[in-house]
Every structure is written in C-alpha cells, then in structure tokens.
Give the backbone structure.
Amino acid sequence: MPPTAWQPGDPPGERRFVRLFSKTPLKLDLGGWLGPIDVAYETWGSPSPGGSNSVLVEHALTGDSHVAGDAGPGHPTPGWWDGLVGPGLAIDTDRWWVVCANILGGCQGTTGPSRCGPHGRPWGSLFPDITLRDQVAVEDALADALGVQSWAAVIGGSMGGMRALEWAVAHPSKVERLVVLATTAAASAEQVALTAMQAHAIRSDPNFRGGDYYGGPPPVIGLGLARRIGHISYRSETELAERFGRHPQADEDPLRGGRYAVESYLDHHAEKLARRFDANSYLVLSRAMDHHDVGRGRGGVAAALAGVQARSTVIAVTSDRLYPPYQQEHLAMLLPGQPNFEVVQSQHGHDGFLIEVEQVGKFIAQALS
C-alpha cells in the first residue's frame, strides 16, 4: 500500500505552498492554538490588480486543491471538477483567477494529522479538534498572502459548500457572489450519525493504534469500511438498483461465497480511497462537518444568514439523500436578496454535484455572469 498522504519531498505536482501563522499561531474556535500552518494551493488563470477577479473554489471531504488538471506525479487523480474550470468553461479561467486550497486538517499538502508536529513526529492523535471556522480563518490568511482583498465568488459543494457559507457569514464584505451546492446551513442529526458510524469503523481497525499509526501499516480496512458506509449515502437507491440490481460480480457466485456486483463496486471505492487518503484526516474533517452550524453563537441560523451580502445561488440535486433538496430550499429561503434556487436533475444522488457537469456548469456560469 503506497503512502496515503502527501509529504514534503514528494512530487509537488501543480501545488504551491505558503506558510501562515508563523509569528502568531491561529487561535482555534474550540480552544487552543495552532501554528505555523502550511497550506497547499493551486491557481488557474491570471489575477487582476487587487485580485478583483479572484474565485475561491472549495473542495469536499476527500477532495484536494487539484480541482482541474491531469493526473500525474503528485496528483493521483485528475481534477475533481475538470470539466468546469478552464478556458471557456463555466468557471472561465480566461476571465477569472481561480484558487483552490487543500483544507486545514487535510492530507494533500496542508497541515493535518499526517504532517510533522512540533514534537518532531506526525501529529496523529495530538492534532487538535478543528471546525470549519478554523479552516476558513486559514483561507482568509491565504487570501491576504495572495493579495486578494475580496472574492468575486466563493463556490463549493457538500463540505465545500459549508465553508463557502461560512465565508459569506463570517466575512460578508469579502464575498461578492456565493454559490453553494448540495449542502446545508447546519449538520443534521442523521448526518452526524452517518459520520459517527464511519469514525467507529476507522477506530475499530487494529492498525489504528489510537491514531498514531504512522511508520507502520495504516488502518486501511477501517478506512475502507468508512468509505463503503459513506458511499452508499453519496448515491441514490434508484441508481444502485438500475446499475447493479441483484447481479453477481463477473463470474462470482454469491450463493457460493462470491460477491454481488454492488459489493464489488463498494470494494473498489474503498480500495481507491485507501490508496490516496489518510484515515486521521478523514476523522478530523468529518468531525468538523459534524460541528458545522453557521448559527452557533450568532443567534441561530436565520440571524447568521441574514447578514450575508453576497449575491447567492443555491443548487440542489433531486436524488440527494445525504443533503436532501429541502435543506437547500430552506437555505435559499433564509438567504437575503432573493437568491437563485436551482435544481440539478440526476439519479446519481449527492455525487450529482460532481457528475452532472453540464447542468452544474450552466448554473455556475449564470451565477458568475
């Protein structure tokens, strides 16, 4: 099993790096301090003076800064929104300067549990509990380092949509346009329950060793089980039924110990994630999603969203059972300024925001017009 986290000395690919909070550490939302913080990011297009054409794209849970571009050294997979970011595409890099940063707590170049901590070894179990507010604070410091005074747009789906919302609430004067897809203003009980099951799966792996497994075999079995649980919620029952039904996998016989095709599908996605992602980052980021509530300490969700100044677009996916469309409808009702509410027709479930490039691209292009 190859390393699951990017480390200094690995091919950088298209990543650029900046060190933040070197002199004064970041005061964390839930207490404590963290610094210095290294941030890996990528850019496309060219900035105008003052960064007035800057667009921040926020990745989801297991994404990274490689929103567009080929796979290759340093990038195990192609860009996760490759069909949307580029010259002449929905997020047109002939017009916009696009920035995407790996998230705080991640494992693809930004400070997280797999990176070396102040004690001279990977943070592991000692990495602090962080929130999306901490992650946005790091992105705000990155914006300062890049000379971006405000974003022409902040765009994100799923966990990326949560951070985009947090940007618009915490820094209303710095976000001109807001585009959020398949997300919510606060994590629901069911969403927390789903991440709790995944966390238990990872921690139950004998190789987890309390989170201090670096230097030994990683907990790929637990991470794979977590991915299987999560992936079911990312797709729709209709899609699984139509694609797999009760068919066996290739020449295997489920009645003789073989697998059904849908089991093989989940096995594939579990193995794929385990090759490129760190289990501790999965735990840290999932927990940050559990903590997500833009209304916490701000008088409630409605009061928090009332202060948003951005021109907003909210996009739902019809078959999303992880973040059902009613959550986006509710969000659109609470955002000021009569936001656009758009619906992507898809049978792919939550992952429709990544898969339905044509529909999503149309709505994003309209939001950026």
Remarks:
- The CA atoms of residues 137 and 340 lie 27 Å apart.
- The two ends are 45 Å apart (CA to CA).
